[in-house]
């Protein structure tokens, strides 16, 4: 379980994240919604040690991890799939997967790759192909697969559906659901509210660096006034 409490992050004089609290539990998807510039990416990056937080707390199973590097966090079971996926375009699919396995032993990595190929047959078919030649949806599968290589407890996802063809969005969301169903705690930022709400368990709405609403996905879906107020018409399209 990941518990974020009263997180503050600034860029110089800009207080981008002002006292954000949220959590992610095993087997559940916590969806972070909010308009452009709300502070979603900043929160994820600070949680994962890629940005320095001004103050706050991030606990993994009760232990403070705020300030630990991303590298150390991966060893402890927290991994992030960044916005834009960031796969290595010139490395093959298999090499990309193995890049995610630096924290596990070789035989473990071998088994994990096999498990990922089973789950994502398309990656198995394309295992010798440069990652850059995959479609956007396939690259997202590769980024998920790479994240799974470290056998994480918590996965942080920043806009996994960004830039994908509309038909791919639901499929990517189903994969996120499957990920959580294996017992992983997922903390997902996603602008595609409709598709994301369909798979999420819990929702955190962030506006101008602050949490303005939390509740279940079910309640968020039925509270159309809330969705309109904070996300606009586009969110309900
Ligand atoms: N490197 C930076 N330097 C200065 N300000 C930044 C930097 N990165 C982000 N910001 C500012 O911090 C605020 C939060 O940005 P952030 O990227 O976290 O928002 P977001 O919710 O992820 O938005 P988006 O939906 O566009 O991805 C914004 O006002 C943004 O302009
Ligand atoms: Mg962002």
From TrEMBL:
The chain positions of domain ABC transporter read 2-233
Per the record's keyword annotation, is Transport included, yes or no?
yes
Domain of life where this protein originates: Bacteria
List the Pfam families. ABC_tran
Q: Which GO terms describe its molecular function?
A: ATP binding; ATP hydrolysis activity; branched-chain amino acid transmembrane transporter activity
Instruction: Keywords in alphabetical order, please.
Output: Amino-acid transport, ATP-binding, Nucleotide-binding, Transport
Q: Name one GO biological process term.
A: L-amino acid transport
InterPro entries per UniProt: AAA+_ATPase, ABC_transporter-like_ATP-bd, ABC_transporter-like_CS, BCAA_Transport_ATP-bd_LivF, P-loop_NTPase
Return the SUPFAM superfamilies for the record: P-loop containing nucleoside triphosphate hydrolases
Q: Which family does it belong to?
A: Belongs to the ABC transporter superfamily.
- Any idea what this protein is called? ABC transporter ATP-binding protein
* Species the sequence originates in: Zafaria cholistanensis
């Amino acid at each position: 379980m990941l518990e974020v409490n009263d997180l503050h992050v600034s860029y110089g004089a800009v207080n981008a994240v002002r006292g954000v609290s949220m959590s992610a539990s095993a087997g559940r998807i916590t969806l972070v919604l909010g308009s452009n510039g709300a502070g979603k990416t900043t929160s994820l990056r600070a949680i994962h040690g890629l940005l320095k937080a001004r103050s706050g707390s991030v606990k993994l199973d009760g232990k403070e991890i705020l300030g630990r590097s991303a590298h150390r966090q991966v060893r402890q079971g927290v991994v992030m799939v960044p916005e834009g996926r960031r796969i290595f375009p010139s490395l093959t699919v298999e090499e990309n997967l193995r890049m995610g396995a630096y924290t596990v032993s070789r035989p473990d990595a071998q088994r994990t790759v096999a498990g990922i190929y089973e789950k994502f047959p398309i990656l198995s078919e394309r295992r010798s192909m440069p990652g850059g030649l995959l479609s956007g949806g396939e690259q997202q599968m590769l980024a998920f697969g790479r994240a799974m290589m470290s056998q994480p407890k918590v996965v942080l996802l920043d806009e996994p559906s960004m830039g994908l063809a509309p038909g791919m969005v639901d499929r990517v969301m189903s994969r996120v659901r499957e990920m959580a169903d294996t017992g992983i705690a997922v903390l997902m930022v996603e602008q595609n509210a409709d598709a994301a709400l369909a798979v999420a368990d819990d929702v955190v709405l962030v506006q101008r660096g602050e949490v303005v609403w939390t509740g279940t996905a079910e309640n968020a879906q039925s509270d159309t006034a809330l969705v309109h107020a904070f996300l606009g018409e586009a969110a309900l399209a």
